[in-house]
Structures are given as C-alpha cells and as structure tokens.
C-alpha cells in the first residue's frame, strides 16, 4: 500500500500560525465575500463574478497603460513594448470571459435583472479611464461618474495629461517626424482631430520598417492593443444581444444600438487608415 505523500517531508511549511499565508497575502476573505446577490436566482453569482473579475483585469490594464505612457515619454521603448503586449493579453482574457457569461440564457437573466436597478457596466469608472488613457476623450462620458467625486478626480487627472497615443506622437516628433498640428498641442482634455501629417509619418515608418524598427514595433503594439480592445467591444455587443435582444440597458442606454455605436470609435485612426495607402 502506498503511503500518502506528505509535502512536509520535503520541507514544505504546513503550519501558518503567526505567519503570512496565501489567503492573508491575497486578502481572500475580502475578495471571496464581496459577492452579495440581491435575488435567489442561480445565475446572479455568475453575473457578479464576471463583472468583478473584469474590473480586476481593468485595474491591471490601467497600471500597465500608465507605465507604458511613462516609458514612451522617457524613450524607453523596450519596457513599453512588454507592457503593451500585456495589455493586449489582458483584453484577450476579458474577451474569453464573455464566453462564460454567454452560458446564461435570456430566461435566466430575467430572473434577477430587476434587482440591478439602474446599475450598468456603462458606469464603470475604470473602463472610462482606459478609454481616456488610450485617447478616446469624449467629455460627455464624465457625466455618469459625477456622483462619485474620487472617480471624477481620477478621470480629470488622466484628461490633464497626454494620452498613450499622444505620447507616441510626441515620440515621432522627437525622432524628427513632422506631426503637423499635434506638435503644438498643449491642451489634452479634448478629442484630437485626425491628422494627415501624422498619417504621413506613420506611412514613412511602415514603408521602411528596417530603418525605423522601434517605431514600427511601437505602431504594431498599439494596433494589437486596439485590435483586442475592438474584439472585446464586439463580444460585448454580441453577448448583450444574445441575452437581452434589443431591449434598453439597465443604465438607460439604448442597449445593443448604443454598443454598436461604440464599435465605430477608433483609438489610433492614422495607424488604421494608412493601411489602405501601403
């Protein structure tokens, strides 16, 4: 008869009296007790965990985007590449999460939808932070967060600084490229206009990638990020339509039609539009 394996025989710590444990380090008592369904519906726990884990991944994405912005501003492109790659992988994880939520049927969602009141992912301050940091600075989208001063403060701080794409454009200028009107920008709060000079700069880089390899790689990292971001938005639309059809969202938006409009938003327009010219 085989003797059951005992990890202590190889030196594994088995007693955590007075020591920091796995659960202590991760504060699992907070995380695992943060789900408080408001109904008796079986699928409400799935709905809560889906959105809570998404917010955790978005917290990490914000950390990485902020660090990538700083690295680009300091001409440290190799670390920025690693961070942007991680952001794309984070959005891959967020995409995969929709597959789990799509196992919930319209009938199952209806059992607890009324308990949500007017709460909606539309109100996520972290999602808004990601959009603002990337460069989609639609100031009308501050309104849903006005009731939470600390969220507004964080979002306004983001709007006061260059976006991720602004940092990339300033890097082009530092490397001798003409970026037209973007070279003179000092006000970051509003939405920038697409710029022919910027498209021309990226076109030059794409036509001679060997000579401009780091800028070429940065461009592709940005496109990769937006590619996964778009997939996440598309999967969001598909999931919502599958579960609620064309009904209005809990937060008062037009639901699927609103989300479809968001699919038209382009974060890095010159990088996408130049492809037609190559």
Short description, anyone?
With 278 residues, the chain is mostly helical. The chain has helices at residues 22-26, 28-31, 44-73, 77-101, 106-110, 125-134, 149-159, 164-174, 196-207, 213-244, 256-262, 269-273.
Q: What is the number of independent domains?
A: 1
CATH class: Mainly Alpha
CATH topology: Methane Monooxygenase Hydroxylase, Chain G, domain 1
Q: Catalogue the unreliable spans.
A: none
In round numbers, the mean pLDDT is 90
Which term fits the overall shape?
Answer: globular
Measured distance between first and last alpha carbons: 70 Å
Secondary-structure-derived class: mainly alpha
Number of helices: 12
- Counting DSSP E segments of at least 2 residues, the number of strands comes to 0
Major beta-sheet overview:
none
**Helix and strand run:** HHHHHHHHHHHH
Nearest-angstrom radius of gyration? 23 Å
- Tell me which CATH architecture applies here: Up-down Bundle
Strand content: under 5%
Helix content: 55-70%
């Amino acid at each position: 008869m085989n003797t059951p394996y005992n990890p202590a025989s190889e030196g594994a710590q088995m007693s955590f009296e007075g020591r920091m444990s796995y659960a202590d380090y991760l504060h699992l008592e907070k995380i695992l007790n943060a789900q408080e369904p408001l109904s008796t519906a079986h699928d409400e726990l799935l709905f809560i965990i889906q959105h809570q884990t998404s917010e955790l991944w978005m917290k990490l994405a914000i950390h990485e985007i902020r660090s990538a912005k700083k690295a680009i501003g300091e001409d440290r492109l190799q670390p920025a590449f690693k961070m942007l790659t991680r952001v794309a992988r984070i959005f891959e994880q967020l995409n995969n999460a929709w597959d789990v939520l799509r196992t919930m049927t319209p009938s199952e969602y209806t059992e607890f939808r009324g308990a949500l009141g007017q709460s909606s992912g539309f109100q996520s301050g972290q999602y808004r932070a990601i959009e603002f940091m990337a460069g989609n600075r639609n100031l009308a989208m501050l309104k849903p967060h006005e009731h939470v001063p600390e969220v507004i403060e964080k979002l306004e701080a983001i709007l006061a600084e260059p976006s991720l794409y602004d940092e990339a454009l300033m890097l082009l200028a530092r490397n001798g490229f003409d970026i037209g009107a973007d070279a003179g920008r000092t006000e970051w709060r509003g939405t920038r206009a697409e710029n022919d000079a910027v498209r021309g700069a990226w076109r030059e880089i794409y036509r001679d990638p060997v000579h401009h390899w780091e800028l070429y790689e940065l461009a592709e990292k940005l496109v990769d990020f937006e590619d996964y971001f778009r997939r996440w938005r598309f999967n969001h639309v598909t999931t919502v339509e599958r579960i609620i059809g064309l009904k209005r969202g809990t937060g008062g938006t037009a639901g699927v039609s609103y989300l479809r409009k968001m699919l038209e938003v382009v974060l890095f327009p010159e990088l996408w539009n130049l492809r037609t010219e190559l």
